Every structure is written in structure tokens, then in C-alpha cells.
């Protein structure tokens, strides 16, 4: 069997490689990505977990609007490693920004140097970073660049806030890996992927880094602090 960890590209590559070997994935929206027929009935040789990162983008836009109410432009940093996920994320963000009366600046990067170049182009009052393995592996670089620009930056993965990002809001990645491990065990014991519904998170953590807020000269609204799962001081 194949455990396709690392997001959408590995999952799509595994699906394209075989229609018979069981595959367990962890992605944002497996239905829209064409990995399964439905969450309840995957219908093929793939199943796994959905962290709902694509669907959480509007929530990140809402949080940024609360954090920096004076901003008229917010930026979204996406990777072009997966065009389909990129399209869905941008579409979701544009709709949410429009509903808030905000202009959305799209920045794209797929390498370390492109991340640096994206910050040169940055003209917004706040930055949303796509939940992607590339950006997670470069979170120290992203946090340093955001700090240099005094830029409020948020993401769906808590590792970003722990590294010095302002806020994260999303499901636990370690919780998702645990569920993937359970599914791997079930399949090795004879279960079929088609019979295992795609697992979705039931808990979303809001992590606020008050040290970063202080460095940025930002006051985190009480409405956000009251909803926070964890506050880093």
C-alpha cells in the first residue's frame, strides 16, 4: 500500500500511478481534486483525511479583516506546485475578500528565492500564507520576511504561529497523521479504501502569538482572544 504524505502533489501522483494498490492520503479537498467520488463513499483505491485547508481560506480572510480593520488590501501567498489547489484557494479567497470590501493581491512562489521575490512585491496590509508543505518547511524564512516588513501574517497551520507568525487557524496536522496511521493499519488488516470514509477534523485550533502582535504594534481584538485555543506570550 501507499501512504501519500505531504499534501496534494504526492496524492495525485500516487493516484495516477495505480488504480489497484491501496492509497491513504492527507489533502485539503479530495473530492474537488478528483481523488475520491465522495467523502462518505470514496469508491476506489484511495481514502484518507481532509484537513479542510482549502475551505478555511475564507475564515483566514475574516480573521485578517478583524486583526487589521484599516487594511484595504490583503495578500495571499500561494504555491504554483498544484494548479488545481491554487485555483480553488484563490477563488475562495477572492470571494471572501470581496464580501469584506477588500482587494486581494495574489503572490506566487515555489522556491526559496521566489518567496523572497514575493515579499518585494507585497503591497498589502496583511498576508495570508497558503497551508502547504513548501511554506511550512520555509516558515522561518516567511516569519523573518514578515517581521522585516512589519507585516501581519497568518496561516492555517499552528507551526506557523509557533515559529513567530501572528495567528494560525486550522486542524491539527499531527491529529491528521494519527488518523492516517489508523487507516493504514485497517487496510493492512484487510479493510478496503472504498469502505473507509474520508476523515474530516471536528476541532479547529486558533493560536495567537501575542509576542508577534506586540512586535507589530497590533492589539489583538478581545473577540479573537476569547476564541483562541492557545495564546503564545
Structure characterization notes:
The structure is a single chain. 41% of the residues lie in helices and 18% in strands. The chain has ten helices and ten strands. Helix 2 (57-67) crosses helix 3 (83-99). The radius of gyration is 18 Å and the shape is elongated.
Short description:
This protein has 233 residues and is α/β, with parallel strands linked by helices. The chain has helices at residues 8-17, 57-67, 83-99, 112-121, 133-137, 139-148, 158-162, 173-188, 210-216, 222-225; strands at 2-4, 23-27, 46-50, 73-78, 103-108, 127-129, 153-155, 167-170, 205-209, 230-232.
Give the overall shape, derived from the CA principal axes: elongated
The CATH architecture of the largest domain: 3-Layer(aba) Sandwich
How many angstroms separate the termini? 43 Å
Major sheet: arrangement of strands: 5-4-6-7-8-9-10
Rounded mean pLDDT score: 92
Number of helices: 10
Please give the domain count. Answer: 2
**Could you state the order of secondary-structure elements as H and E?**
EHEEHEHEHEHHEHEHEHHE
Features:
233 residues, alpha/beta, Rossmann fold, 2 domains, 7-stranded mixed beta sheet, 3-stranded parallel beta sheet, 10 helices, 10 strands, 41% helix, elongated
